[in-house]
């Protein structure tokens, strides 16, 4: 499954740290789909995307993005 998804997700992980990339390679997250159902329930996914965008925007405006813990993973879900 990872090999199938990698070409589509790679651009979103260019700035991701190694720990996050290794976590996403873990088969248990790919084999079980319950986390996806829970994330998409009750507008949680849209809320998570908005929060991620707001956090990154605030850090950029403050000139402090380099010191923040962030990723652009939300973009993969936003373009669904």
Task: Give structural notes.
The protein has 80 residues and is mainly alpha-helical. 64% of the residues lie in helices and 0% in strands. It has helices at residues 2-9, 18-25, 27-31, 34-40, 44-61, 74-78. The model has no long low-confidence stretch (mean pLDDT 76).
What key phrases describe this protein's structure?
mainly alpha, 6 helices, 80 residues
Quick structural overview:
This protein is an all-alpha fold. The protein has helices at residues 2-9, 18-25, 27-31, 34-40, 44-61, 74-78. It contains six helices and no strands.
Number of helices: 6
Element pattern in H and E: HHHHHH
Distance between the termini: 18 Å
Q: What is the 3D form?
A: globular
Low-confidence stretches: none
Strand content: under 5%
> Major sheet: size, sense and barrel closure?
none
Produce the secondary structure layout:
Blueprint lengths: L1 H8 L8 H8 L1 H5 L2 H7 L3 H18 L12 H5 L2
